[in-house]
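Handout, tutorial session.
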Amino acid sequence: MPQPHAQRRTELAGYLRSRRARISPEDVGMPPGFRRRTPGLRREEVAQLAGVGVTWYTWLEQGRPINASVQVLDAVARVLQLDTTEREHLYRLAGIPFVREPGSDEEVVGKEVLGILHSLDPLPAVVFNSRYDVQASNETYRALWPLTTLVERPERNVLYRLFTTPECCSTFVNGDEEMPWMVAQLRRAYGRHVGEHAWESFIELMIKKSPLFAQLWASGDVAPAGRRVKIIRHASVGIIHLTSMSLSIDGMAEHRIVVYTPVADEDRLQIERLLGMDDPIVGCEVHGRRVSEILADRAAAKTVRLTPDSDQPATA
């Protein structure tokens, strides 16, 4: 009886051939050509469009025991125009964990958890995973930290924002205390994910982008979760003192709701002032920009497309 790995490779080979057969050259912007014995793209055409070697792709379609990375499978899936379900099937056959890209906060955390976040307004509240990715948030949290929510979902990471923002524009007044603690929290969680692509690539990116993160990560420190006091500087209203508390979520391992409570009445009033503003400033007094400007820039960036004659992006 064939071994499971061999069976999976055979299934992967057949699946790739069937997906290739349904894509015509015209579907990917290529001339139809002549003398095509079978429908669909040729192997060398898929390899060329995906940016992989012809021999490697041929071996993949032949079911040979070769390794396929996430990046390569993504490229092949793009050429073969696979939808989310088909892409997930491809990953499973290749023996690589598939991470589905959610489309909304409710899809990530569920209707009930999202309702809890909304009911906590005007207390800022957010759902983090153990890598500090922002999974969902309420209106007050988004007002305080818009750059963790105005960006695309893969970019919604608090650590990335903290460590790549110029010091003058940082929201943390007590960053010297909080940032080492957050990195120590990250390393504590990392112990459960050593060797996982998503975690290793994130750590590598952070080390590359931030010398401070690299220094803190190299220390090897770990820290327990607990109550913290965050001192926030917002360009539109000034200083806000907040006490953070983490709450676990049933059925969502390594996720937590973090609620921020104003330390004093003055801090509560600062939040009320911020929520009453139509177009607050993000950043410092020198480099700060209004939220509307940031949104306009992001909308303009979405008009970037590929020209018909080039694979280089051009603004429409």
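The second record follows below. Compare its token runs with those of the first.
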Amino acid sequence: MPSSTSAKSAKAVRAAGKVAPSRKKGGGQVPVGKGPLKKRQIPWLVIGAAVVIIALIGALAFSLVPKYRDKAELEKFTPSAQQKDPSDQIAGVVKKDYPAGLHVSGTQRVAYDQTPPFGGPHDQVWANCMGVVYSKPIRLENAVHALEHGAVWIAYNPDKVDPAGIDTLAQKVEGKPFTLMSPFPGLTSPITLQSWGHQLKLDSADDKRINQFITALRENVYAYPEVGASCSNPAFDANNPTPYDPTPPGPDAVPMDGKGLTQDTTELGGAAGGLPGMPNIPGMPNIPGVPNIPGVPTGIPTQPMKGQ
């Protein structure tokens, strides 16, 4: 009969065999009673979704951050009672004082002192400046009247600005009231910006000063004479505007001082005097025979009769 010590040893060996790991072929060990370990699955779907979301957030930030930054930078070019002419901060802006309210007829020329002009006598009909991109050069005398109404006019030399540059400029004008844009053959600078009494010459459509100029001077009630006047004028055909005349004005042209013309005092509500800062209410009519109150909106856009 085996001794009690041997019996205890045998029992211990059997008990250990139940819990001890058994060796697999190839040297691996697994717990007794359990199958082989499963590989951990990588959640590719979750990872892919996370990558897409991160990419979208990055693209959105890339698109929006510059816009917010640009908007913040343009804040300092917004006119106010404390800063009536923010264009003073823009390098290259030329300023001149011009008499306002001096009208010529549709057949008269003005001997402008600047090219393009940005003030002085002008046609009684203004060029439509409700964000119009003209494909043809327009008559100077009509363009200057648009400036008197508070518009910014972008002129460009079609031989010096490529199609991409023209498209960039058009995006700053199209559909934006109190702006207009037109080609100007023979212009010495590729691009010029005009508002009443202000001009800026530029080489590139990507120049950040374009947005600064527009912000500072478009409908700036402190910087143009006919405050409250409408820029809309459907009678000035955007597709077939009164054409630009490239020939010299001639000896019978109206001089810059408007000698021989009668000043229309109803157009002196802003920069030339009166009360700048009155609200602009488009379409507010003038009542015939009733004098205009400076700063109060004037003129439903109509085509003036000859000699009016």
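Points raised in discussion: Residues 272-308 have pLDDT under 50 and may be disordered.
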